[in-house]
């Protein structure tokens, strides 16, 4: 009935609107079903530590495998946030990512970290505190290997609630990272109020770091800012060797991007890790050959 009312009132362009609504409802229904039927999957993107030249950890990125398509989180996370499905996605992603990290830590990578994107809502309403607590307990993951990524928008909407949640998470030992830094509208005063230990420079700035003087200066400024506030700085979306070199010289701590590795399903990450481990072994072997024997 409400729908009919809307249709009459919006006579003229009503069909466009109801098409949009119908499309949305269909998508929501599909997603609800998809979650139940295990259609979500996680891909993991390796991060490189620029100081040691070694693998630092991973960021978990969700995808939705629907029929023959692999859908980007950008196509369904905003919808999930609006229709309340996001809490189930958050819970599933966190559990899956922590479980996977424990398995990699036990195989050959005891210090690897896992970054997980959390929705603004679960920070604002505090629900991620219990969720994280339960997930750490059930997987046995040590808290400080887990990094929760939040975007600047979280800081603006309900800053007091967000700050309270973040302090509780820090108390548990979990690390907090500010994602897509520079693309939002938060002021420096805001950043200072929150217990972030990491800052991620958005790809937008990284894209121009080699050829655009302004972007280059901005990246340097952001790195300085991070260092001043005692945060580790990660550059996102690094696609070339020259970008990596400049970032490294600017004092950036870590990079993530296609240049080092793309986001991959767990099985492909296993292969990636196996290759790294082989290189490590052969590097030691080479060292052994040149060092004098006793
Ligand atoms: P984000 O957290 O900033 O993730 C980085 C995005 O950049 C990812 O896109 C990643 O695939 C992409 N990327 C990484 N390196 C490169 C590169 O070198 N070149 C290019 N062109 N792209 C690169 P993705 O996976 O599509 O995720 C988009 C956004 O969706 C994420 O941005 C994050 O905000 C959100 N998201 C992803 N997974 C989750 C999740 O599990 N929960 C929530 N709440 N949000 C998520
Ligand atoms: Mg992220
Ligand atoms: Mg980002
Ligand atoms: Mg993003």
From TrEMBL:
Coiled-coil segments on the chain, per record: none
TM region positions: none
Domain of life: Bacteria
Residue ranges of every copy of the EAL domain listed in the record: 24-277
Protein name: Diguanylate cyclase (GGDEF) domain-containing protein
Provenance organism: Alkalimonas amylolytica
Taxonomic classification: Bacteria, Pseudomonadati, Pseudomonadota, Gammaproteobacteria, Alkalimonas
